[in-house]
Amino acid sequence: MKVTQEKLPASQIGLEIEIPAETSKQAYETIVQKLARSVRLPGFRKGKIPRHILLQRLGPKRVKAEALEKLIQDSLEQAIKESSIEALGNYQLISSIDDLLEQYQPGEPLVFSASVDVPPEVTLGEYKGLSVQAHKTEYDPSEVDELLRRQQEAQATLVPVEDRPVQMGDVAVVDYAGRFAKDAESEAAEIIEGTEATDFQMEMAEGKFVEGLVEGIVGLNPGDAKEITVTFPDEYPREDLAGEEVVFSVTLKEIKEKELPELDDDFAEEVSEFETMAELRESLESQFQEKAERETQNSVEEALVEELLKTAQIEPPETLVEKELETLLTQTAMQMQQYGVDIKALFSKENLPEMRERSRPEAIKNIQRSLALLEVAKSESLEPGEEAIEARVKELTEELSDRSFDPKRLREYVTEDLSQENALDWLREKASVEFVAKEEETPDTEVEDLDAASATVDVAAQAEEE
Fold it and tell me: What is the pTM of this model?
């Protein structure tokens, strides 16, 4: 068998393989014998069908197709092995299968072309002494006060109010129903599915609902009814409502105001594992300080990687891109499932191709980042020691005790992860970092349960509110 190699773009090796005449004949005969043993035809005992009748009934094209498939598969495996090619995933046939079927004659040589993905070559530019700009996150003590205030709101008691109109900060008990504005004047206008509720407790706060709805209710008294017209945002998740004007028929039935608990030791015991407010505050301050340091470190690392990739040359093969896409989509599915999202609807046949395409740039960048850092670790001999690997493996094994996993793959993951961490630490030590002002961001309004004094944000609660 003659094999010719060619280097192709996107980390692929092209192979032109010439199959000898004897091999092409042997493959055909093997398939004929296999079919003769397995095929059943009326009037013949299994394994006793005459050759010419078997070929006549099955058709020569089917037999050739099966023989050709075996020839290609076996020849590629042999070529990859003999050429010591580190192939990733399956091969891609370059030659047209229809053309090969036409050309294939058992007992005559056959030439075909295919490609295989291989680990990409990583070429680093100058990576020693990088100069980058990053954002430094300063700890803001008011974050603790804001978190405690939000938890006060969450623990508030609702007290009925009868002597005044509804105002911002209240909870309004309302009945409401929505109709498209273009149909609202018609007596036959139907209520839009999902825009109707009875005795709904609506919090009078900006940003909680579609803009204009809460503001339109403010000032009403119990028993008042009002038509409120709002426009849904163009990017609203429901396509039938996005950008549409909707008229809500609202009846205010009751007003309740929030009675906040005192920020005392009893409150600390109620919402956390601490017995005093002083202990709770100290824990929250520490966690917000760690959060600020972590954000600063992440900003520096991201800037270093961005700079590293500017001069690096890495073409990830499609096999690695597809694998990373699967990882990203799996992570998205797990997160959305925690928020109560219907995964089957989200990952439908219609949505999945678009989701994969949107995630593709992130997948490619993740691969490039990983490969570039591993190359730095390799070049500077920063591979982790056995002790560090064993410690991390033990830690993860305990975390995964309730799940099945491949110990070999886990060890590979740990080794690569530690190598990347070491490379980032080394780049940081050698780099020149300039901290610049952080752009203004939308204030974080996510609410967190203070049990165990965890100061990380509860994304699920916010997603549900939105």
Answer: 0.68
